[in-house]
Amino acid sequence: MSAFRARLRIRTAVLLLSLAVILTGCAGAPDDAQTAKPLEPGRFSTLDAAGVDQIRQTKIARLDMSSGRLEKAAVGVAQASYGPEINTRNSGKISLTIVAPSGEIRGETDRIRFNTTDKREDFSEVTYFLTASSLDEFASLIRDGVERYGIDSVVAERWISSMERDPEDKSDYSVTSGTSTGLEVNYDLRYDGTKDIQVIIVHVWPLD
Prior knowledge:
By secondary structure, this protein is an alpha+beta fold. The protein is built from 4 helices and 11 strands; from the N terminus they run ααββββββββααβββ. It has helices at residues 2-28, 49-58, 135-149, 153-165, and strands at residues 60-64, 70-71, 86-87, 94-99, 104-109, 111-115, 122-123, 125-132, 170-178, 183-192, 198-206. Strand 4 (94-99) and strand 5 (104-109) form a beta hairpin. Helix 3 packs antiparallel against helix 4 (153-165).
């Protein structure tokens, strides 16, 4: 009887050890269904459910407006779609690239949205948000837009100078758009010197 009990204890111990190994393997295995693959070089993001999940997880979005438009069919959505709003404010910023007819439009943003109607085959506008934690950083973002996209430098510097004279002031101001990329890029400035975060709403439109 004692030999039988000994064999039973050994079998139980082996079974428990095997079960522990199996459970450990399961716990450590990645969940492929919930892990988005990185965007392959040269490829563009889609705006269907899978594409939006990929953008949110990888924090990379690359949109093709090299034709001057962002076509719905090219991003995997139906003509009736109004497009997603992609918000990652609680998980970090997205590295956004819009490939334009001439050059690229780039920004680090935690919010991207689209404008259209259910009758259009394209999106009439792409909007994203830039943020800064100081006036100096805010001015740097504006000057970057002047250099990259042809935004009116005289108007931009005049606005910056006015804010530097009174950094605690508040101003909602739309700087004259730039078109050097073959798209219209507009910086809508939302500045409030009493707040910690300042915002630029960037509007990107087709030229026609």
